[in-house]
Amino acid sequence: MEYTPLDGKVAIITGGASGIGASTVHLFHEHGAKVVIADVQDILGQEIADKLGKNVSYIHCDVTNEDDICNLIDTTVAKHGQLDIMYNNAGIIDCPSPLGRILDTKKSDLERIISVNLVGSFLGAKHAARVMVPQRKGCILFTTSAATAIAGISSHAYAASKWAIVGVAKGLAAELGQYGIRVNCVSPFAVLGTGISAARSEADVSKAEFALSNHVGNLKGQILKAEDVARAALYLASDEANYISGLNLLVDGGYSVVNPNMVNILSANMG
């Protein structure tokens, strides 16, 4: 009999219509979960739900709108009778400059990123906890970033939003552990298909893959893709991680623990 670690569990995935969220929807469904996709990309979200079948549904949800979040949670519980996994994955990056300097950052840009990334995640966790506390069980996940472990790889606004989520997650792990609720973060390095490479040509994506594999990433010969992050989320959502809470799981190929400057200097001098 095939092992299905999420068999019988009900999961909500915000930002589930594309990128990391869509990969996670497919993987959670494959491993037995009943999945609710929450997004503002109605056509993409509904297409995934239609493709995967009756155990996957789509609900329009703007995570910055608390009424939308309430409706998402309440509709899910009304349909499935429970909520086991709340994956607060929806997020945005700075466009057109994901590495924008502070002097170039507008207050409105900061507020927009904070509103989606931090406030959206906070509201998702708040209303998931509203359901999970009486159940005395549940798993709350967040997508953050390797920017929470190493500086200089994102804009200040983006890093601030993701660092704040880690702070919220750790606080929730302390607060909600008494109810059997686990809270964790998944923090990826640059992911192809989201942000830096989305909506680009195949040639541009190939260049990005080469750069990530050979110049930027630490783990040579490997390229981080959305499905890799989804697998990390699957582990944290499953009972295999039943005593893991308060963790910020870096999916970065060791990038954050290595300072490449000396290696690069030696390589250049010895080359």
UniProtKB/TrEMBL annotation:
Keywords: Oxidoreductase. It holds the Pfam family adh_short_C2. SUPFAM superfamilies: NAD(P)-binding Rossmann-fold domains. The keyword Cytoplasm does not apply. PROSITE patterns: ADH_SHORT. One of its GO terms (molecular function) is oxidoreductase activity. InterPro entries: NAD(P)-bd_dom_sf, Sc_DH/Rdtase_CS, SDR_fam. Belongs to the short-chain dehydrogenases/reductases (SDR) family. This is Tropinone reductase-like 1. It comes from Quercus lobata.
